[in-house]
Amino acid sequence: MLRPTPFDLATGTLLGVAAPPPRRPVPAGVPDPLGALDTAVLAGLTRPPCVVSFSGGLDSSLILAVAVRAARREGLPGPVPVTWRFTDAPRADESDWQHRVITALGLGGSWQILRAADELDLIGPVARRLLHRHGVVHPVNLHLHLPIAELATGGALLTGAGGDQILAGWRRPPAASPRARLWWLRHAARTRQGPAEAFPWLRAEVAREAHRAQRAEQRAEPRRLRQRIAWHTRRRDLRMTCSALSTLAAEHRATAIQPLLDEGFQAALALRFGGHRGIGRDRLLAEIVRGALPAEVTAPRRKARFLEVFFRTPTREFVSSWDGSGADEELVDPEALREIWSRWPIPGGTASLVQQLWLAANPPDPAGQPERSAIDMEVTP
Predict the structure, then answer these.
(1) What CA–CA distance (Å, rounded) separates 372 from 130?
(2) Greatest CA separation for the chain
(3) Residue 188 C-beta-side C-alpha neighbours within 13 Å
(4) Is 304 helix (H, G, I), strand (E, B) or coil?
(5) What pLDDT is stored for residue 373 in this prediction?
């Protein structure tokens, strides 16, 4: 498994882009993007149980719909959608779209719903199992997939990883509505923060380095789709995410598949739409699907926010009682971090530090058995 560096953990960022590989000719007979996705999911369907991490968002809905269509056509066991539902996390609630997509696909009988309150906290019972096994990894919410990987034991785990980057990117097209434009103006104001405002828990010189590197990487994202795809797939962020998911699945004798990061899909997408500049996700999905899937799958929807799922009681109690020990003082200013952690909610950029410092104070017991957390699960009839 690829692992984050001390700088990654302290800053809460994962920056860096690998050099481009040698140019390769476009293979002959590249299918259309939807056909390429179909081929990517077939690798999972032929290895049941094929579990799809299904949030109800656009990316996971697309993967699930393509897998359902391919399984029915080929006479294979259908994919098993697995969904988290969260208590007291209204901004993460996607239940309405989950039901719409599941109903449109006719999957009610196989849909599995996992329920969590504090269980998915950054240092809650599920995360602790992963922290004690692997230490702090990227992404910090990887533990969300641990119970899903367990359900995929011996089979395949499909996720929508890479959709935000491949299909959307950071350089969004102009907002269409006044409300959306207002949101983007506020977002732009936040991204113009200086080092001290963006990383107030770091040493001043480290904050400047992190801020400079982060801004440079954001500005470097290409606008044309072909280059954007190639650039994002070389970023450490996505590579480390894929490495972590593969390791997690392999521990349960399963194969992790990210269809949106499949080389065949990327080649088909670049060949068909690569010249587009600043194309939005909604339009791109409509062009990919072209009416071949139920409208509910690609209909525009609000993007869920998950901070309130991971910043819960265990994290709040830990940060409020932290005594300042254990931090890498060459990177982190412990007094500044304690002051920031004295207020709630804490910055999302300190999530890795929460896990790192909790683990330093609570190392695994070499003689102990791994803890297994109880997760409430239901199968929708």
Answers:
(1) 10
(2) 61
(3) 10
(4) coil
(5) 55
Task: Please state the domain extents for the chain.
Answer: 6-19+31-379
CA-based radius of gyration for the chain? 21
CA atoms of 128 and 268, how far apart (whole Å): 40
Which residues, given as ranges, of the chain have pLDDT below 50?
Answer: 381
pLDDT for residue 381? 42
> Are 241 and 192 contacting, i.e. CB atoms less than 8 angstroms apart?
no
Pick the CATH number of 6-19+31-379 from 3.40.630.30, 3.40.50.620, 1.10.150.320, 3.30.470.30: 3.40.50.620
pLDDT digits (tens, 9 = 90+) for 229-287: 999 999 999 999 999 999 999 999 999 999 999 999 999 999 999 999 888 888 999 99
C-beta atoms surrounding 87 within 10 Å: 12
pLDDT at residue 25 in the model: 64
Tell me how many degrees the CA angle 277-280-188 measures, rounded to the nearest 5: 90
pTM to 2 decimal places? 0.91
Query: Encoding tokens for residue 145?
Result: 């997939």
Strands ordered across the beta sheet of 156-158: 255-257, 156-158, 50-53, 80-86, 112-116, 376-379
DSSP codes of every residue in 237-251 = HHHHHHHHHHHHHHT
